[in-house]
Design goal:
The protein contains 19 helices and 20 strands. Helix 4 packs across helix 5, helix 10 packs across helix 13 and helix 11 packs parallel to helix 12. It is elongated, with a radius of gyration of 24 Å. The strands form four sheets. A nine-stranded mixed beta sheet has the order 5-6-7-2-1-8-9-13-14, with helices on both faces. The protein has a six-stranded parallel beta sheet with strand order 17-16-15-18-19-20, sandwiched between helices. A three-stranded antiparallel beta sheet has the order 10-12-11. The chain has two domains: about 270 residues, Glycogen Phosphorylase B (Rossmann fold, 3-Layer(aba) Sandwich), CATH 3.40.50.2000; about 190 residues, Glycogen Phosphorylase B (Rossmann fold, 3-Layer(aba) Sandwich). The chain is α/β, with parallel strands linked by helices.
């Protein structure tokens, strides 16, 4: 049994701002079948501490108050204040697989995990996530009595300093363990000025090109990519793309230098949470064999969004409303989409200018375009169940999950040919349709012409009902559960635990 500490800034079902949380929350359960015992460590945000610990136990006629979650370690001073590590459960079926860093001076704040109520990043985010990384390195290195780990798996820049701490400043009395760094989105790197370096608790030799220094400042993600034994991205295509200047965001040279230690593993989805035959959030259950029942969800979605009821295609978008996600081009193609007889239901939040432009489009096409600004998990389920096709025009997409949900729910993905979108959607060209392999529509280049062409192809296919039905069914037959992905992660862990010194990998202190 391999014991892994997964270190991240969020995890479902406790706290989520994006796909990172889905991955961190789902992987421990999926990977257990492959001989890996994984514990997840996250910050103690208010919403996490509120939900932490076992439920109340029912006694004779009334519930007994649940015991407080056990404290397993304490730090007298962790970046400016005391902190403690408490253990709990990620969900009711897996007790003891959660560790929470309770540091009120860093995490007890209103707002999101990364920003205040107005959307401005916390000015001390460097300190908050350096503390998470330091604590994670301590725990992985064995400072907590009774907790032993074979490997640290760090996610994104918020945990990026943890491999650097293990390399340059391992915990006193602890032991060296290998580390894996996963990039969920290269665009977010955690870059801070050089004057924070003396406050990180790293030795002078860490201020180097092969350490945390990056263009005269401190790069959290860069530090993790430089120091970790292995690097993963969340799709094979993205692992190749980030070797180029277009997608490498300035770190392409580092990625190239790591050679075969950079690998892509496609994310999975929680097949229990996303199952249209059992989903409690949707109006009518259905399956690939009973697609006719799906229409009830389309009618319910039309009503919920105040859209005209007709037999034309109903497109959906569930996305952050940003340039990366191609939402500016979505604004440009709205007239084209409606002109083809389509309608659009959109759920998301993001850039104010894009939100305003989308509102103008909805006003221009009342009854054909409707928005819900914000995020609602249950509504996302209803949209996947009721939409005919989901639009994902991302300029770059490390993996993407919404297209996977669409495939599972018979909501045909129309996607840009990039990253994980290219890896998970089979384009409905004539050969693929004839072979019964097509699962969606791909288009190349996120601009008006290419996106409009992708929508046109989707509408044309929609009106070929036999072919459209087969594309839907082919997507629903695909297995995007965590089974294969978990097996790939387990094999990767064993590679570094069993053979800790490999060509191209860094060596921890003490390694020969």
């Amino acid at each position: 049994m391999i014991r892994v500490l997964s270190l991240a800034s969020e995890a479902v079902p406790l706290v989520k701002t994006g796909g990172l949380a889905d991955v961190v929350g789902a992987l421990p359960h999926a990977i257990a079948a492959h001989g890996v015992q994984m514990s997840v460590m996250i910050p103690g945000y208010p919403q996490v501490l509120t939900r932490l610990g076992p439920p109340a136990v029912k006694g004779k006629g009334k519930a007994r108050k649940a015991a407080a979650p056990p404290v397993v370690h304490e730090w007298k001073d962790l970046f400016g204040g005391p902190a403690r590590l408490v253990s709990g459960q990620l969900d009711g079926d897996h007790a003891g697989d959660l560790l929470v860093l309770d540091a009120p001076h860093l995490f007890n704040r209103d707002g999101s995990p990364y920003a205040d109520g107005s959307g401005r990043d916390w000015i001390d985010n460097w300190r908050r996530f350096a503390a998470l990384s330091r604590a994670g390195a301590d725990v992985a290195g064995g400072v907590v009595e009774g907790l032993t780990f074979d490997l640290l798996h760090a996610h994104d820049w918020q945990a990026g300093l943890a491999p650097a701490y293990l390399k340059f400043a391992p915990p006193a009395g602890g032991r060296s363990v290998p580390s894996i760094m996963t990039i969920h989105n290269m665009a977010f790197q955690g870059y801070y000025p050089a004057d924070i370096f003396p406050r990180l608790g790293l030795p002078p030799e860490a201020w180097a090109v092969n350490g945390v220094e990056y263009h005269g400042g401190v790069g959290f993600l860069k530090a993790g990519l430089e120091s970790a034994y292995g690097i993963t991205t969340v799709s094979p295509t993205y692992a190749l793309e980030i070797r180029s200047p277009q997608f490498g965001m300035g770190l392409e040279g580092l990625i190239q230098s790591r050679g075969d230690n950079v690998r892509g593993i496609v994310n999975g989805i929680d097949a229990k949470e996303w199952d249209p035959s059992k989903d409690p959030a949707i109006a009518a259950h259905f399956s690939a064999r009973a697609l006719a029942k799906r229409v009830a969800n389309k009618r319910a979605l039309e009503k919920e969004f105040g859209l005209d009821r007709d037999d034309g295609p109903l497109f959906i978008v569930v996305s952050r409303l940003t340039w990366q996600k191609g939402m500016d081009v979505l604004c440009e193609v709205l007239d084209h989409l409606v002109g083809l007889g389509g309608r659009l239901a959109l759920l998301g939040t993001g850039d104010a200018a894009l939100v305003s432009e989308l509102h103008r489009g909805a006003a221009r096409h009342a009854g054909r375009v409707s928005l819900r600004i914000g995020y609602d998990e249950a509504l996302a389920h209803r949209m996947q169940a009721g939409g005919d096709a989901i639009l994902v025009p991302s300029r770059f997409e490390p993996c993407g999950l919404t297209q996977l949900y669409g495939l599972a729910y018979g909501c045909v993905p129309v996607v840009a040919r990039t990253g994980g979108l290219a890896d998970t959607v089979v384009d409905a060209n004539l050969a693929a349709i004839k072979a019964g392999a097509a699962t969606g529509i791909q288009f190349a280049g996120v601009d008006y012409q290419n996106f409009a062409l992708g929508i046109t192809r989707a509408v044309d296919l929609y009106h070929q009902q036999d072919a459209w039905t087969e594309v839907r069914r082919a997507g629903m037959r695909m297995d995007f559960s965590w089974n294969q992905s978990a097996a790939a992660y387990a094999a990767l862990y064993r590679n570094y635990v069993d053979q800790p010194s490999v060509e191209g990998a860094v060596n921890l202190p003490g390694d020969q």
